[in-house]
Amino acid sequence: MKIFDPTAAASPRPLGLAPAPPRLEGVRLVLVENTKFNSETLLRKLADRLGRKYGTVLSVVHRKRSPSHEIEEGVIPALRRQADLVVSGIGD
Amino acid sequence: MTDSGEPSAASDPAALIEAYFAAGYTDGLPVVPPTEKSIADTLAAAGLRAEEPLGEIPSRNTRVTAEKAAINAVMAGCRPEYFPVVVAAIRGLCRPEFAYHGPASSTGGSAMVLIVNGPIARALGINAGNNLFGQGHRPNATIGRAVRLIMMNAMNTRPGFLDRATLGNPGKYSFCFAENEDDHPWEPLHVTRGFAAEDSTVTVYASNSLYQVYNQLAATPEPLLRCFADALANLGTPNLKGFNESLVVLAGEHTDVLRRHGWSRRDAQQFLVEHARQRVAELKRGARLPGEVTPADETTERHVFKAPEDILLVCAGGRAGAWSACLPGWGTKWTRSVTIRVEGPTQ
Known about the structure:
The complex is a heterodimer of chains A (about 90) and B (about 350).
Chain A (H helix, E strand, L loop, with lengths): L27 E6 L5 H16 L2 E7 L11 H8 L2 E3 L5
Parallel strand pairs in A: 1-2, 1-3
Chain B lengths: L12 H10 L13 H11 L6 E5 L4 E4 H11 L6 H11 L7 H5 L5 E7 L1 H6 L13 H17 L21 E3 L10 H4 L8 E7 L3 E4 L6 H12 L13 E5 L1 H9 L4 H11 L1 E3 H6 L15 E3 L7 E5 L7 E6 L9 E4 L6
Helix pairs in contact in B: 2-3, 3-7, 4-7, 9-11
């Protein structure tokens, strides 16, 4: 008798990472906040530290609808124009 | 038999079942080994081709095909005619407004509750009565199980990996029931959501717990529903910030109290919106809000729900007994319940 495979592997989409900025001095920073408790507090603290240490400039704080949702496709081009560096990713 | 004399999967059904365990394909219970015929029959019952996509979860790069869903449905013990319900449920989980990734991955450990309405519930014999959430009914047990197996095997939702439940709950094995439309004081759930009474639907809803609400003394709706409001707004409930969605399942005796007093569905929902609340002082004392308690906090209240539609009221369960149930949701900010029409040649 045959064993049928019930699984479906994820098909990763090719991801192209933007090159890291050669230096942090003066870069424009965008924060993508996912609405988790303390997410914005933590990200703003990070932005403050980067600002003090490297002179980064906080450009935009974008709030996602929820941690459950992906960032809205339509927002990405605007953030790209406003940012040299985007910081996101807060868990529990 | 193998060369060593051990039973082999080729000749021994028990060995075949063990092979599915060994491959990591099961939910911890034995599965029904599929055959070419059982998979074909299952696909045919929903009028689907093997390669047909049922949906995808972009954030996980996963895509569910009819064939993979059918294999899992057979493994779960579904009869072919159950498959259209399974398909509708998977389509619901894949809808953007359900926002699958959150409730499927969260430490909250949600069960995917499936509420079946319309003629298919009666045709398949999906239990809407006694022992509603309990054992003993094949469609309830296997349709819910099929959905969880598909999540595990074909939607990249394995415990410890992208299923990060701290505790989980027994409903994660299977959670499916029908609304009792034969003895209902109001229009059934799917009709309130824009479907015709003769449509068959599945509503998918993420809930991380179930607790029973008891009241044998209440003869009028207000004291009865106060017990529900209290249960829905207890300090430990997940979402107390006003972006909640909860399922309330009213069983026979409690339904009768509302019916006898002429309360509409909307009346009951509105009462719960008004009374499911907590004082800010209590929220702070319970560390559900940060900060010191101020005198104003003693008289300031927060409501758990914003709108009547945030409370899914379903009538089901046994006729006898002063029990109903609350199933807190995962929050309207993160996910919303979705109702999908069941389609297929058996409809």
